[in-house]
Structure formats: C-alpha cells, structure tokens
Amino acid sequence: MPETVISAQKLDLTFETNDGPVHALKDITLDITEGEFVSLIGPSGCGKTTLLRVIADLEQPTGGSVSVNGLTPEQARLARAYGYVFQQAALLPWRTIEDNIALPLEVMGLDAATRTSRIKSNLELVNLSGFEKKFPWQLSGGMQQRASIARALAVEPDMLLMDEPFGALDEIVRDHLNEQLLKLWAKTKKTVVFVTHSIPEAVFLSTKIVVMSPRPGRIYEIIDCSALGTERSLDIRETPEFLKIAHQVREGLKAGHSYDD
Amino acid sequence: MSEHSLLHDKILPIGTVVLAIIALWYAAAVFLNTPFERDQAQRAGNTISFSEILPRTMAQERPVLPAPHQVFAELWDTTVGKSITSKRSLVYHSWITLSSTLLGFLMGTVLGVALAVGIVHYQTLDRSLMPWIITSQTIPILAIAPMIIVVLNAVGISGLLPKATISMYLSFFPIAVGMTKGLRSPEVMHLDLMRTYSATASQTFWKLRLPAAVPFLVTSMKVAISIALVGAIVGELPTGAVAGLGARLLAGSYYGQTVQIWSALLMAAALAGILVMTVDIIGAWVNRRMGVKPA
C-alpha cells in the first residue's frame, strides 16, 4: 500500500486585497499518494496555482491543514522535500546552464564533486548533455524549461511540483516535452503535482486529475486515469479511453461553472 | 551585411561635429575680441580695417575668448613641453585632481553600495535614510564644499581627504539610488525559487540580488565618476589650493589668463571622457563575463 505523501484537510485561503477579501481556496480536501502523477486543472482564478504554492510553503493557508511527507509545508521546504518548476524556466541569465543547475546545490552546501556528478546525470536525464557551458539565451524555450526541470531534479527531492511548466511553449514542443516528462516520471518514480489548463495534457500525463472550479476555488471532481495504463505514447490520445476521460474532464469543468462569464 | 567601418561609423560623424565646433569657436573669438582691438586703435587715434583686426583677435595675450590654436598651443606647452613634476605642468595638476577624484569615487561607491544594501534589507532604513539622501543633493555643492574643507581642517585632516570627501558627497548618490533599484530588480519568481531552496537571506543576496544589480551599478558608476571629478575640482576652489585643475582655473581667473582657464577646462573634459570610457570598458568586460547577449 503506497503512502500518502501530500494530504490537505479542509484547506481555506482568503487573500485580503484592496477590493476586499478574495476567497482563493475553499474547503480543499485532497490526498496524494507516493508515485502518483496528479494534475490540477481548471480555469484561471480557480486556485490551482495557489494550492500548489500552499503545498510548497510559498503561501500560508488561512484555515485547515496540509501535511507534506507527514511534516508541515515549512518543515518539508526546509528539508527540501520538493523541487518546484515555474511557468517560466526562471534560469539566472548570468549563469551558464551547468551553473544554473549548481545553484540549489550551492545553497545546500554540497561539495564540488557531488555538484559536478549531479549536474552531469540530470542534464543527461533531460537530454541536454553538451549544453553545460551555454548561457540560457542561447537555448530555445523548450530547452530552457528542460534545464529548469533538471535543476529541480538535481536537489533529489521526493516530489516535483510543476506550475504550468509548458504553458508558454508551442504545442509541438509541448507534446514532445510531455512525452519526455512521462518517461522521466517512469524512470524516477517521483510524485508529481502538475498544474495545467490543458485538458489533453492533463489526461495524457496523469494518474489522477483534480478538476477545480473558480470563485471560490474548490475541488469539483477527482477523476481517475489509471485506465490508460502507465506505458503511454502520444498515440493514445486517439483512443476511445483517452477521449472518454477528456470528455469527463470537460463535463466536470462545465458543471463547475468554468465556462460561465 | 551592410558596410560598417570605423571611418563611416565613428570618425566621420564625430569629426564633423568637432570641425563645426572649431569653426564656431573661431567665429566667436573674432566677434568677442574685436571690440578690444577697436578700442586700442581708437585710443591711439588710428582707424583700423577689419582685415587688420582679424589676425590680431587670434593672438591677444588676454583675450575674452582665446582662439582654439592658442588653447591647443598652451595645452601642448604645458603637457608635452614641461616636465611632469613641474608646477607649471598640466599633467601634474591633472594628477592631483585625478587622485582625489578616484579616492572620492571609491569612497562614494563603497558608501553608496552600503546604503543600498541597508535600504533593501531594512524597511526602517528605507524610510529614514532615503529622504536625507535626496535632501543631501539639493544643497548646492559650492555652499557646502568650503564648510567640509574648514571642518576637516579644524580636526587636523588636510590634503587629499577633504577634496575626496566632496567627490564622495556627490558620487555616492547615483550609486545609492541605482544600486537600490538593482538590488530590488530580481523577479518575484526568482525570489520564490530561492525560497523553495530554503536559501538564507545572505545566500539570496550573494547569488541573486547582487549579480542582478551589476548592470545597474555599472550605469550609476558612469554617472558617479564624472561628478566625482566635478567634486574634486570644486573642492580645489575654496581652499585656495595651489595645485590641481581647480587651482589652475582659479589662478587663471585671478590673473585674467583666459588661455590657461580654457586649457584647464579642456583638460578636465578630456579627463572626464577618459574616466567614463574606462568605466564603460570595465562594464563591457563584466557584461561579457556574465553572459550578456551581445547586441
């Protein structure tokens, strides 16, 4: 029986703004077990990114509780339990690719030999060997995002938290990176929490899809995707099982008032 | 690829402007120095034609506006023509001014960076210091310079340091303002990234804020070094300093030596140009090291 690694109980988060309180998250209860690939999907303003940031201890909930690896999010962050991938690659422009991947390792205080070996193995993992000495601007958007995934993996975290990592890329690159990410996930067995607003992306990648709805941000439905198996290629997007789950997600979004004006 | 050559890109445009300035300068010299020649002729009871006046306007001993070739002759004579240890060598005087400029610039940079670091990390300092920093620059330097010299002299500090203090007083400001902006320039995403690594404040400073501030620092240093030179020259005026470009300007105006004033002015301008260019070259080198995309 796999362990529960992330557990949210009746989570609430209200932002105080100049225009009055904004209820970003309401009554979120969610369990994620080890090795799962969970997508959070929903329209803008449904709180999917906020939920991810609460797990990462980048936002503080105003009610309820979260545990990550049985710890509070802050303890988990201090223990470097997760690697976080942002919407943009967020590479430091003055560091080469290898030095960018070295950044978290320097912060952790690892010695040079360990840093070098982790840089090498993680660049291999994302197929970027040979680009160590390049600066970020010399790489395409997709390659930059792969470098940022390598940087997150170099910390050797138990889980990856990904906030629309491919949202800014074109569809061709995105398909390719989705396939690579799935291979990476199969190889590393990490728990992944993945925020997206793309239905095909969510269905293709996930073992479980969390459909969220806006105002206030809450979970509308949790859809199981294990029917698609673990060995997936882009071709499965044409299969009836895939289309059925995609339809179910779309219906969920509709019923959750995601398409209301 | 289009034609790019040194001649076309640099020498031609700059040369054209230089020639235009020299032509205007000659015209102004003739115009401004003519009344003196007419006056002289009238006193002697002579009438004088324009063709006789023209050459004389460019060879007066104390002209209102010396002609370019007079200034260049003086510049040549006082740089190449004199031993650099001579009190009449402009190189010697330039060095006196340059040394206090550089010391003041260094002190100003250290002070400006230190203030910026404090301002970025402590909100109290931001609120309490920033208004004073801005106020400091609204006081005319000509008013405060003599007081700095007198006060420092009273506590037994004289020579290079009082002048350098005035340079520092002027040059710390652009550094403090630019560096504050630079240290605050990292995006929220990069700051969040450091937080996910559980980086300490000092790690975030050294690995993120400081490198992000470097381009801002280089730009402010360019402004700061030229006003540090102004500060050093101004610092030489109220002291009755015997050496330095400021002293040359002052002595020139006492004795009506306009040629000397203008050559000191041109020397100061050349010095400022060299200083800014030096900072520029260092900045370009740093940018290359930091992987800035070539334009």
Can you describe what's shown?
The complex is a heterodimer of chains A (261) and B (295). With 261 residues, chain A is an alpha/beta fold. Chain A has two domains: 4-81 and 158-255, Rossmann fold; 92-156, no CATH class. Helices cover 36% and strands 26% of the residues of chain A. Chain A contains eight helices and nine strands. Chain A has helices at 48-55, 73-78, 97-108, 112-125, 141-154, 171-188, 199-205, 240-255; strands at 4-17, 20-33, 37-41, 63-68, 82-85, 159-163, 191-196, 208-213, 218-224. Chain A has a six-stranded mixed beta sheet with strand order 5-6-7-3-8-9, sandwiched between helices. Chain A has a three-stranded antiparallel beta sheet with strand order 2-1-4, with helices on one face. In chain A, helix 3 crosses helix 4. Chain A starts with a strand and ends in a 6-residue tail after the last helix. Chain B has two domains: 6-65; 90-289, MetI-like (MetI-like fold, Orthogonal Bundle), CATH 1.10.3720. The longest helix of chain B is centred in the first third of the chain and has 38 residues, at 6-43. In chain B, helix 4 runs parallel beside helix 7 and helix 7 (160-183) runs antiparallel to helix 9 (201-236). The mean pLDDT of chain B is 88. Chain B is mainly alpha-helical and 295 residues long. The A-B interface holds A 56-58, 77-78, 80, 82-84, 86-88, 90, 92-96, 103-104, 106-108, 135, 137, 155 and B 187, 189-190, 192-199, 203, 207-208, 211-212, 214, 290-293.
Short account of what is shown:
With 261 residues, chain A is of the alpha/beta class. Chain A has helices at residues 48-55, 73-78, 97-108, 112-125, 141-154, 171-188, 199-205, 240-255, and strands at residues 4-17, 20-33, 37-41, 63-68, 82-85, 159-163, 191-196, 208-213, 218-224. In chain A, the strands form two sheets. In chain A, strands 5-6-7-3-8-9 form a six-stranded mixed sheet, sandwiched between helices. In chain A, strands 2-1-4 form a three-stranded antiparallel sheet, with helices on one face.
